[in-house]
Amino acid sequence: MQPRLMIYRHDEFPCHLNWQAVSFIRAVWPWINNGLLRETYGAHLRPVHFALVLEDLLISYAAVIEMTIGHTGETVRLFGLGNVFTYPSFRKQGYGSQVVTAATQYIQSSAADVAALFCEPNLAGFYAKAGWQEIHGVTIFTGKGGLPTASAATRMMLFVSEKGRSGRGAFESAPLSLQHGW
Ligand SMILES: CC(C)(COP(=O)(O)OP(=O)(O)OC[C@H]1O[C@@H](n2cnc3c(N)ncnc32)[C@H](O)[C@@H]1OP(=O)(O)O)[C@@H](O)C(=O)NCCC(=O)NCCS
Questions:
Q1: How many whole angstroms from 125 Cα to the centroid of ligand 1?
Q2: Dihedral, CA of residue 160, residue 162, residue 167 and residue 171, to nearest 10
Q3: Among 16, 43, 94, 100, which residue's beta carbon has the most beta carbons within 10 A?
């Protein structure tokens, strides 16, 4: 039986899939919300959930979030791709690529100017296959009242709108300042 791709707006994301996604994240990325996570992303980020499911089981998952940021004097609609995972028994069968491709297509046809994701350097090729481009500019996270920290993660981006495409150089040369990663 092949998993089925389901796409949900945040208020439609079924409870049983939410808890499977949250449980994976709590086990694998325990520093997120100090393990006190109850949803993959808050409603204020307007998440859209991409889930490959086998009946009631979550196999592979990715989410797209939305925000508006200021960058080099411009207001930019930035979408984020995050919480990408496949449950270990189902890896290396193309499921991760399937959710990433579906999420990427969604972003490409959205109102985003640009999109970004953060990953380990060894996953850059995995995302590049779906069209993401590695951008070497500095990313600074301003955090919750602490000192700003520069991210060591690889930043990959999509340049979606005309405004986003023409602003590509600015994303490579000027630091990208964000409250938090995703
Ligand atoms: C990264 C991750 C999501 C990939 O999921 P996946 O379902 O294994 O992804 P895919 O099967 O589409 O692709 C993985 C690799 O398997 C290969 N592959 C795909 N189908 C295959 C098949 N039928 N047979 C053998 N290999 C295959 C792909 O070529 C790919 O290789 P690459 O890494 O060189 O690009 C998964 O390993 C994971 O959940 N990791 C832990 C969480 C994590 O780190 N997430 C990323 C956050 S940025």
A1: 10
A2: 0
A3: 100
